[in-house]
Amino acid sequence: MNTHTIPAFGLGTFRLKGQVVIDSVKNGLELGYRLIDTAQIYGNEAEVGQAIVESGVARSELFLTTKIWTDSYAADKLVPSLKGSLAKLRTDQVDLTLIHWPAPGNPVPLNEFMGALADAKAQGLTKQIGVSNFNIDLTKQAIDAVGADQIATNQIELHPYLQNGKVAAFAASQGIRITSYMTLAYGKVLKDPVIEAIATARGATTAQVVLAWALQLGYAVIPSSTKRVNLAGNLKAQQLVLGADEMAQIAALERNERLVSPEGLAPAWD
Q1: Residue 62 located in a structural domain
Q2: Fewer CB within a 10 Å sphere, N or C end of the chain?
Q3: Is a pLDDT exceeding 70 seen at residue 4?
């Protein structure tokens, strides 16, 4: 049985660099965010670490996620690369470490990098492990390598225009939590008339409606923002409960509109 727990609401740091990410993380922590999501390829782990230290929030109160980049998947590289991330983040352990992309054609076999990730957990460098951007077939291979009970989450692009139902259903069947990234679809869904109508009726922001939708489906969300007012507003999505009719209206927005699928990194999507 998978007994992993991941906070439902976190702060993403994708595309945020330098002082911008420092300010975003510090503002987020002041407002009450306790999950911070970063990655080696974001090039901001050191700044995230700095922001956490300067925030004064105890490390024990935080849930910190990072992701291993494709050039460190080999068994002799993964653990050292994670140790490098820990140094930048100014901590001796992260709460969750993910394989960032399956990277078809990568010379390192899946069972090797999943084994190395499990080894990092065994060494106490990370409390939990998981994957990101995996399709069903690759998730099955990861399960074969380390066991479903070892995979805390599959972090995938998921928003009203790309609801990833097959992957989400398979993950649920294995007790693996889905973490939705790009939940607001780069802001595209915030201008959707259906979302706008629900937001108006509820006296909420469109972002709150979309985030509440994802939370009610059982997904973890990690929206990012550089504006304190938006960071604060997003948090309030946790108090918004949508009705079955509103959830159905948002479900009907599915149009398989994928925004992120980099060549050489992305799998054959379900």
Answers
A1: yes
A2: N
A3: no
